[in-house]
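User: I'm preparing a small set of examples for a lab meeting where we compare how different chains pack in three dimensions. I only have the primary sequence for this one, and I'd like the structure in token form so I can line it up with the others. Please keep the answer compact; I'll paste it straight into my notes.
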Amino acid sequence: MSFILNIETATKNCSVAIAKNGETILCKEIAEEGYSHAEKLHVFIEEAIAEAKISVQDLSAIAVSQGPGSYTGLRIGVSAAKGLCFALNLPLIAIDTLQTLASQAKVSDGKIIPMLDARRMEVYSEIFNHKLETERPILAEVIDENSFQDINETVYFVGDCAEKCKSVLTKENFIFLEEIKYPSAAAMSAISFDKYQKSDTVDVAYFEPYYLKDFMMTTPSKKA
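Assistant: Understood. Below is the structure token output for the 224-residue chain.
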């Protein structure tokens, strides 16, 4: 029996889930405009473990969203995951944030394109088929009326970019699943369990989040 703690903090959704053999048994999450991850994450972890009626000693691994996404959110989630792994001597599993987001679209055809806001008309995106197999790796790209025009199958867009992208992505085969806005730790469970069974883990000491864009770490310089 394998219990895995899944942590997702790459977006405005601060999310924690406990999974048993790949099935989510409990999830605690909240999405707020003003990121509350620093205040909520450790509370959610403690509450989730208690409400699942297990102890930290019952955990087999910790899984964390690796990005891309919010620099601050990723740092908070990864720091918490690494700290738990060190303290409990547990393996660390890194999960592609966009894969988690794409897995929340339950479709049986076409392509799934998860997109996360990267300011202005730029997004972090990836292309999956309906079996959740990667067909194009992660990119930071500017969206315009020519984006994804070569795809003739039905395209399902998920993520927090619908509001700014719907006006330019207007092809008839484009469908926005606007109810799927942020990745959830609950959707990490099957992915993390599969990786756990394959011993697909990362080095706790050296693992860093996948920021994709370094400039997201900086602030504008002040004009004299």
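A couple of notes for your slides: The mean pLDDT is 93. Strands lie at 3-8, 13-20, 23-31, 59-67, 92-96, 111-117, 122-129, 134-142, 155-159, 174-176.

User: Perfect, thanks.
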